[in-house]
């Protein structure tokens, strides 16, 4: 499959950073040089640089070429919080179908995570997410009511809830993601086109604001034949260098 | 459950680093000050400092107090490569029972990962791993023959294969870990005391040496009610700070 040019340009720059062609501390070529090298438009080059900046690989760049700041890609905050942003980042087309959006009392599990009483009103969203049109994940989110109520003015079939909420000024500052495995329920199975009881890769997420107040509890279940997580790590040098670790969510 | 003192001392120091009581660049209190504060022996304090050093939180310290170098813990290379080291790091007692160790032709999957022809001799190890005596994981490793043959001189019921091999000079330099979910086979189920078909959290690992040559392909299957992976991430500051990410394997 042919990837968009900005994804390929970003891949080439990542490889040059990783192999030392562009060492830490060095400046990247100018935007116009990158346009010429990759036969790309300025918009394409800027999209590639934005991806690297998000990943923490480069910094600076207001009016001058950005500088390499790290050799290890870590998946950006946004692409770890947003299925839509992640899919775009890897050059795939995300999609979604809303199965249900409901204001109801918090479940026991959501209540613990959101630090509210069980039964306190929350907004629950259940969506099936696709990659290039193929079912990949079942997403269940519970938002505290003041945040979730914003979703009744949003077409949740249209794209990223994360982008919409942050655009509305919701302070989704920090996420804790817990990864385990779970058997598909009948609902999961029907929407993901698998047998009930099949193993699913589950990512539960608790998102809090700057003050540590919980805003969202989510339970995302991926078809493991479609999405996996990878972690690369390297032995620290004998001189006590920091451990080098890189984590990404990727297509299986 | 009461954790060993060195684990608790490390936890307290991590919290002080995380909350800024010990900011990046500052020196830690001296070993004797730490001994007095925590009513701990010098060995205990040194074990706690070794854990923080492994995690990349502190650096230096030859003859003077170490300095805080980062606020984000990443799980150390060693504890990500070795179940034994990981269990010790979190204050649990690891155990193992070897089910099989065999020299045989590489499976198709191992062969691809090890970059050898299918059927080329490898050494396969199948072990059941326990935490505090309770079955937690089924470990399947395939080593290239020159590495795996060292294991016929090792009592694989006695502890860490990783520690043994690195002690023998094997250059396990870099690991790629792929995390997904898989249904328990009859063998998995029997040893982990669950029903066949139950979802397991799987971590596949490919370990290579400095030159990139594959040495080991592993398939570790965890009971998700016993072990999960967590990833913490924080929104980068508007000034373009590096994304802050922390990944750990932990008790469910």
TrEMBL record, chains A, B:
Residue span, HTH gntR-type domain: 3-71
PROSITE patterns (alphabetical): HTH_GNTR
Keywords: DNA-binding, Transcription, Transcription regulation
Family matches, as CDD domains: WHTH_GntR
Gene Ontology MF: a single term: DNA binding
Signal sequence bounds: none
An example Gene Ontology biological process: negative regulation of DNA-templated transcription
Protein name, entry field: GntR family transcriptional regulator
UniProt organism field: Williamsia limnetica
InterPro entries for this protein: Bact_HTH_transcr_reg, Chorismate_lyase_/UTRA_dom_sf, Tscrpt_reg_HTH_GntR, UTRA, WH-like_DNA-bd_sf, WH_DNA-bd_sf
């Amino acid at each position: 499959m042919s990837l968009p040019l900005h994804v390929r340009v970003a891949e080439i720059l990542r490889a040059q950073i990783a192999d030392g062609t562009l060492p830490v501390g060095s400046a990247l070529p100018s935007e116009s040089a990158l346009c010429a090298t990759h036969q790309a438009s300025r918009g394409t080059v800027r999209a590639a640089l934005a991806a690297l900046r998000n990943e923490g690989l480069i910094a600076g760049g207001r009016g001058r070429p950005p500088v390499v700041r790290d050799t290890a890609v870590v998946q950006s905050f946004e692409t770890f919080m947003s299925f839509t942003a992640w899919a775009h980042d890897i050059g795939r087309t995300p999609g979604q179908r809303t199965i249900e959006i409901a204001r109801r009392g918090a479940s026991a599990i959501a209540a613990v995570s959101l630090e509210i009483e069980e039964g306190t009103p929350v907004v629950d969203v259940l969506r099936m997410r696709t990659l290039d049109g193929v079912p990949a994940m079942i997403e269940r989110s519970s938002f505290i009511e003041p945040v979730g109520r914003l979703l009744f003015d949003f077409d949740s079939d249209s794209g990223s809830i994360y982008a919409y909420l942050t655009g509305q000024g919701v302070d989704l500052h920090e996420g804790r993601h817990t990864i385990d495995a779970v058997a598909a329920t009948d609902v999961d199975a029907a929407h993901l086109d698998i047998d009930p009881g099949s193993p699913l890769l589950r990512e539960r997420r608790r998102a809090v604001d700057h003050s540590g107040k919980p805003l969202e509890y989510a339970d995302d279940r991926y078809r493991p034949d479609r999405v996996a997580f990878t972690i690369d790590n390297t032995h620290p040098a004998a001189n006590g260098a920091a451990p080098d670790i890189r984590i990404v969510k990727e297509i299986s």
